[in-house]
């Protein structure tokens, strides 16, 4: 039995295998193609959707990990596709390199993160898949191919956000940047003013985001400024980090969520307290320690990318929805941005994007009505759903959102003609 981190999906694969060599995977894929069976590579199981669910062979990628090579001059690092993001700083830091941008956490595998279009924040920076210069992929016929600017280049914009539909990624080559530090400023500010100035705030900062606790009028803003690696560090003291990030953000928060789940009426009062005890600090640390945090309170999440200009209206509409329906929402709404990119199924394809993510505690009941209503608002604002987070869209609804949707399907036909990597979720979002 396998389940996702958010406890949103269960699977009982026919077999679970953890190969360590490409040749083992090639044999497995060929055998599955002959038997008319399926294979599903899986990373850390941090997607909320059924994108990684299989009744066929589940292929765990933990043993495809570690640093395979580094080209220091070109700042390229090739890593096993199952390498956890948390391991990357240590592996490439030795060479004075870092990943250009990261999301909220670092538990995911590189392959899982890029395959669903995982992103962080920063209007001049793309999602993690835009950092990928090349991959090695095993196709649905068991062929091992390299895809880069010089080998099979026509496939690069499809495979970088490939939804696990095109093959098994064996290695990923990242285009890195010189190691850097981040100066972080976290402040509570009036939500209305933050929304009014949202676009300017995004443009003025390297990395800007905010959290809004429903039932409050406060935004907890986070502004990160990139500095060279030799800028002095002023990290959070160990005790402070423990209190803020472990006790308050996880342990106390878990207890509060559990109480609210049984007594939703007290949610507004607790949220008003939460926005006072979190988010007022400044520190400077190495980049990955600022970008990522630990999240141990389990939740369910829906996130949409909208044109960045639409963020303030879309968020105000979410606020109005919560008021009109008298909902009790304990988890904060997270708002971020990313640069436009050219990856075919990237949620930021061709447009400067803002991201709005809504969450519910994993034990909350009746979460679907909230997610459905927020989804409707996001669709009214030309939204595109995150591929790893909850949404209800089908291929017919997704096609008009992506200029290269049918090109992606043509690549799928070419790389996985027997649908070895299919599952019901991909049937829904891509078609059979
Ligand atoms: C607590 C939490 C925080 C998160 N924060 C963010 C965030 O800040 N930003 C954001 O954008 N998203 C975020 N996410 C979503 C998450 O980054 C994505 O769902 C991501 O796909 C998870 O990576 P994974 O390794 O768990 O992949 P999985 O969920 O295991 O797999 C995802 C997909 O990748 C495919 N895949 C995995 N390995 C391979 C491989 N080797 N070859 C081919 N396909 C493969 C799978 O088949 C599946 O289709 C968060 C999720 C959680 C639970």
User: Roughly what fraction of the amino acids lie in strands?
Assistant: 25-35%
Distance between the termini: 25 Å
Q: What gyration radius follows from the Cα positions, in whole Å?
A: 21 Å
> Which kinds of small molecule does this entry bind, naming each only once?
flavin-adenine dinucleotide
CATH topology of the largest domain: Uridine Diphospho-n-acetylenolpyruvylglucosamine Reductase, domain 3
What is the overall number of helices? Answer: 14
How helical, in percent, are the residues?
Answer: 25-40%
| Top-tier CATH class of the largest domain | Alpha Beta
If you average the pLDDT, what whole number results? Answer: 94
Major sheet description? 8 strands, antiparallel
How many domain regions? 2
Organism: Microlunatus endophyticus
Pfam family, one: FAD_binding_4
GO molecular function, one term: D-arabinono-1,4-lactone oxidase activity
Domain FAD-binding PCMH-type: 9-179
């Amino acid at each position: 039995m396998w389940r996702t981190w958010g406890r949103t999906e269960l699977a009982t694969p026919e077999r679970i295998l953890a190969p360590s060599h490409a040749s083992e995977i090639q044999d497995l894929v060929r055998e599955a193609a002959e038997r008319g069976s399926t294979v599903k590579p899986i990373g850390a199981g941090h997607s909320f959707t059924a994108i990684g669910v299989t009744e066929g062979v589940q292929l765990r990628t933990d043993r495809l990990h570690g640093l395979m090579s580094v080209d220091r001059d070109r700042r390229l690092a090739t890593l096993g596709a199952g390498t956890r993001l948390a391991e990357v700083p240590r592996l490439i830091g030795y060479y004075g390199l870092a990943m250009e941008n990261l999301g909220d956490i670092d538990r995911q595998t590189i392959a899982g993160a890029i395959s669903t279009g995982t992103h962080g924040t920063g209007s001049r920076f793309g999602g993690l898949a835009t950092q990928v210069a090349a991959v090695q992929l095993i196709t649905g016929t068991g062929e091992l191919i390299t895809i880069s600017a010089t080998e099979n280049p026509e496939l690069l914009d499809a495979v970088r956000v490939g939804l696990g539909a095109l093959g098994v990624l064996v290695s990923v080559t990242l285009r890195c940047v010189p190691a850097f530090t981040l100066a972080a400023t976290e402040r509570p500010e009036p939500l209305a003013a933050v929304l009014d100035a949202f676009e300017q705030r995004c443009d003025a900062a390297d990395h800007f985001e905010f959290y809004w606790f429903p039932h409050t009028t406060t935004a907890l803003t986070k502004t990160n400024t990139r500095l060279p690696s030799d800028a002095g560090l002023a990290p959070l003291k160990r005790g402070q980090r423990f209190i803020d990030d472990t006790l308050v953000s996880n342990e106390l928060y878990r207890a509060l969520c559990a109480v609210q789940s049984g007594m939703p009426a007290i949610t507004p009062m607790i949220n008003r307290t939460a926005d006072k005890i979190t988010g007022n600090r400044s520190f400077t640390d190495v980049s990955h320690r600022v970008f990522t945090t630990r999240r141990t309170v389990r939740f369910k999440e829906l996130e949409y990318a909208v044109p960045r200009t639409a963020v303030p209206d879309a968020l105000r509409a979410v606020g109005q929805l919560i008021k009109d329906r008298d909902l009790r929402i304990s988890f904060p709404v997270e708002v971020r941005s990313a640069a436009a990119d050219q990856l075919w199924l990237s949620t930021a394809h061709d447009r400067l994007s803002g991201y709005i993510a809504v969450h519910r505690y994993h034990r909350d009941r009746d979460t679907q009505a909230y997610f459905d209503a927020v989804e409707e608002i996001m669709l009214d604002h030309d939204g595109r759903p995150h591929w790893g987070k909850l949404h209800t869209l089908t291929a017919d609804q997704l096609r008009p959102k992506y200029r290269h949707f049918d090109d992606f399907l043509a690549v799928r036909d070419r790389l996985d003609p027997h649908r070895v990597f299919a599952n019901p979720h991909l049937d829904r979002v891509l078609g059979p």
